[in-house]
Design goal:
α4 (60-84) packs parallel to α5 (101-117). This protein is mainly alpha-helical. It is elongated, with a radius of gyration of 16 Å. 62% of the residues lie in helices and 11% in strands. The mean pLDDT is 87. It has a two-stranded antiparallel sheet with strand order 1-2. Strands 3-4 form a two-stranded parallel ribbon. β3 (92-95), α5 and β4 form a beta-alpha-beta unit.
């Protein structure tokens, strides 16, 4: 299961292709981004990025993961915002769906976090 901060670091680095800018964007240290990406790559079992001292680029597996996860992450984020916005009085039912295994893992983690923060709201996947 991937953690939220791992996904955020992966997506930001895939877009920035620079550890320093990614760290700035996420308000963490460059070392933290590097450690997070290394942990994610160990979990996945393959490199997601090719790095040199002057350059960062997505590996083919990283590109595939990005292409599949980015739209799902955007939909999950938007769904959570829509659920939270009405005066922070979060109640009712949130129904969400996904396609693809990676999106499903992400959605389950997001749903668990949402449930923990808003116990009066039912989340249906």
């Amino acid at each position: 299961m991937l953690e939220r901060h791992e996904m955020e670091a992966f997506l930001a680095l895939a877009e920035e292709l620079h550890f320093g800018r990614t760290a700035e964007r996420l308000h963490v240290s460059t070392a933290r981004v590097s450690q997070t990406i290394a942990k994610l790559e160990r979990r996945v079992g393959a490199p997601l990025f090719h790095r040199t001292s002057h350059r960062v680029e997505l590996a083919p597996l990283g590109r595939d993961l990005y292409d599949e996860v980015r739209p799902a992450w955007d939909r999950i984020s938007a769904a959570v915002v829509r659920a939270v916005e009405p005066g922070r009085g979060v109640t009712g039912t949130l129904r969400v769906a996904f396609t693809g295994r990676a999106a499903g893992q992400l959605l389950v983690a997001a749903a668990q976090e949402f449930r923990a923060r808003h116990p009066d709201c039912d989340v249906q996947i």
